[in-house]
Amino acid sequence: MQPVRAPLARAVVLACQCGSAKNAIWRRTAFRRFASSGSKLLTRPNTPKPLPYKPVGPKPQPGDPPAKVSSEPAGSSSKAQPVSELVRSRWFPLFGIGAATVCISYFLAAQAVHWNMEPVERYAPGLEPQAPTGRPSIQSPVEFDLHLDKSEWRLGITKLRRKLAAEARGHVLEVAVGTGRNLEFYDWAGITATPEEVKKRALEKLNKVRGDRSKLADLGADEVRSFTGIDISPPMLDIALRRARQVVPQMAGALPKRPLFSQLASPGQHGLDCIALRDNKLRVFTTDAQSTLPSPPTGDKYDTIIQTFGLCSVRDPTLLLAKMASVLEPETGRIILLEHGRSWWDMVNGLLDRSARGHFERFGCWWNRDIELIVRDAERRVPGLEVVKLERPGLLTMGTHVWIELRLRRAVAIPKVDDGPGKSGERRSPDHEEKPSGSWFGNVSGSSSVLSVGGKPLGPKEP
């Protein structure tokens, strides 16, 4: 056995030596090529795996016409399926679409019949089942104010507030100022300017008129000289004072960080609780606008009277307009109103009527009142009152928002009213209330509210 094992061992050793020698020779050759050419180190070739066989069509010849490109998606059959075959293969989704269409159509038809046949709660202005207060009953004033931020921006009301405040000039009265959502848009320079700023503004005006002092009065006629805000709710005025501290110049040092009207107010004009700032040029009163309106700091008439969304929140809106006219400067003065009420579309009016009670319970106002009817009634009943402009701005509001401007052709003498509408303006008994109409497609026949002061109705407007 010894002689056989020795040759086998020698053969194995020689084979290993030969393999290692071949590897060494191959490595030396690769390194030499890399050093001489500067290329990457050679590696053993990695042959790709064979791909599945795909038949290759004949190559196009120079004389062949161009191939047509198919517009059909890959995998689709060029043959059109017959309708019967399509119904058999896709009967379930087709049945679902048909059933959904029938259900939606039935629901819309039932709603239309219900809205047309069922009686709708609709009352003349001032004859609603509950007197409006203009104050939220379900939510707090803070929640009420926050709720309006996004909705007013979406509906373009913020833009209209800015336009409304830009029209203010002279002695300004804002009725139902609420939480003061118009305060940030007024030009306060004429009220809050320091003595140095007053001198600077006077010099600028003098330069504009080239030294002609007779024209200085015309330049100052367009600025706000005083501001008076009134509201019936002290909690709403707390928020208005907080907003005034933020947006009105020089108010941060005049009011505390958390002002409370009940703590800061003192008896003022007509015995009303009042906060007066900036030498009585900036005042806030708590009062019912239907009973008492304070006079301006100087004089007895206002140049501009502003109200936003207030005619829907008072017992007798026609009387409120008469009270505004009694403190307005004749001829040059303006009453500017931004209100919401009935639309020019009957479908929208039907929706307003059906949701009016729920809206009243939340916000304290009847938003389905016919504002144009109220204004025309006041124009007819208040001597000298005239509508200058009445338009419905904004497409998203579908005609429910109304911009109104009124002026007074001459002074109107209205006797003093201490208890709102007066004796003959009290609410009627339920037996005399207007009955709801049976169809929501009709229009309001007219206002049953009679404007009367001291038991005598105001006469018709003279030509």
TrEMBL record:
Residues 37-81, 417-463 are annotated as: Disordered. Residues 47-65 have a biased composition (Pro residues). Residues 37-46 have a biased composition (Polar residues). SUPFAM superfamilies: S-adenosyl-L-methionine-dependent methyltransferases. Residues 417-436 have a biased composition (Basic and acidic residues). GO terms for molecular function: methyltransferase activity. Keywords: Membrane, Transmembrane, Transmembrane helix. Pfam families: Methyltransf_23 (PF13489). The chain crosses the membrane at residues 91-109. Gene3D superfamilies: Vaccinia Virus protein VP39 (3.40.50.150). Residues 444-455 have a biased composition (Low complexity). This is Methyltransferase type 11 domain-containing protein. The lineage of its organism: Eukaryota, Fungi, Dikarya, Ascomycota, Pezizomycotina.
